[in-house]
Amino acid sequence: MDCRTIARDLVAEQQALDDIVVALDESQWSLPTPSPPWTVIDQIGHLAYFDEAAALAIVDHAAFVESVNVLWADASALDGGVDELTLGEFREMAPARLLTRWRAARASLAAAAATLDDDQRVSWYGPPMGAKSFLTARLMEAWAHGQDVVDSIGVERTGSDRLRHIARLGFITRSWSYVNRGLDAPVEPVAVALTSPSGEPWLYGPQDSDEIVTGPALDFCLVVTQRRHVDDTALEASPLARDWLLKAQAFAGPPTDGPAPGTRP
User: In Å, how far from its chain's centre is CA 209?
Assistant: First the structure.
């Protein structure tokens, strides 16, 4: 998978969410989402802020590093922390203006992504990331925060084969999900055998392993992005694989837990 393919799928994933939120009325933009106290406005504002930041990280390393330093310094002096700084401006916007701002951020990111080489590294809020991982993370963010939006407004969306990027990310972050919690990552391999939305098999890891996860790719992506509890999905998992899925975290940041069983069926 090269940067061009991931960038193309990123644009498509962002547009799919745009197609949903463009039809919302004023009251729906203010609905609470499953990430309290965030509203739908906050979810799209979050994407707008970090899509702008991602574009800057690609085209102007020094300016991005300076923006990060300022963010951390200012956040430490505010009760609202990072959320207040990254979302405050967007919370004051009318939905139409926010949508225009997010679209501009996406366009800037798409233009910047077109300049990336596959082996290039991009600075971010933690360690620098490989270009392909960097764009995959942006796609995962668009999809996962989009899930929060559709859960809030009561819309059911079908998966697409763009989920292959998130499924692979979920698989390769298995060890990270343990280490991030201060735990030793199991040495035993776990196989993953998923059915894509189009019906194709997606296989990761040694398929002869006794430890395995099987089921719909959509459900796997919902679990590794902590949008569903494994018990509320059609996934089947051996004991060690289940232990992983209960801890799975395909995104950076401090360890967090997904929803409790039955809370986001």
Answer: 28
pTM higher than 0.90: yes
pLDDT at residue 265, rounded to an integer: 79
Rounded CA separation 200/181 (Å): 33
Give dist(CA 111, CA 51) in Å, integer. 12
DSSP letter (8 states) at residue 32: B
- Kindly list the structural domains of the chain, giving each domain's residue range(s) and its CATH number in brackets, ordered by start: 3-153 (1.20.120.450), 163-247 (3.30.1050)
- The alpha carbons of the chain give a radius of gyration, in whole angstroms, of 18
Strand partners, 39: 32
CB 121 within 8 A of CB 131: yes
Between the alpha carbon of residue 176 and those of residues 102, 163, 172, 185, 251, the distances in Å are: 30, 20, 8, 8, 9
* DSSP string covering 227-242: SS-GGGSS-EE-HHHH
Phi, psi dihedrals of residue 191, rounded to the nearest 5° = -90, 150
Name residue, tokens 């405050």.
Answer: 88
Does pLDDT of 151 surpass 90? yes
Task: Give the strand order in the sheet containing 212-216.
Answer: 201-204, 191-195, 212-216, 236-237
Query: Which residues, 6+ apart, have CB-to-CB distance to 78 below 8 Å?
Result: 84, 85
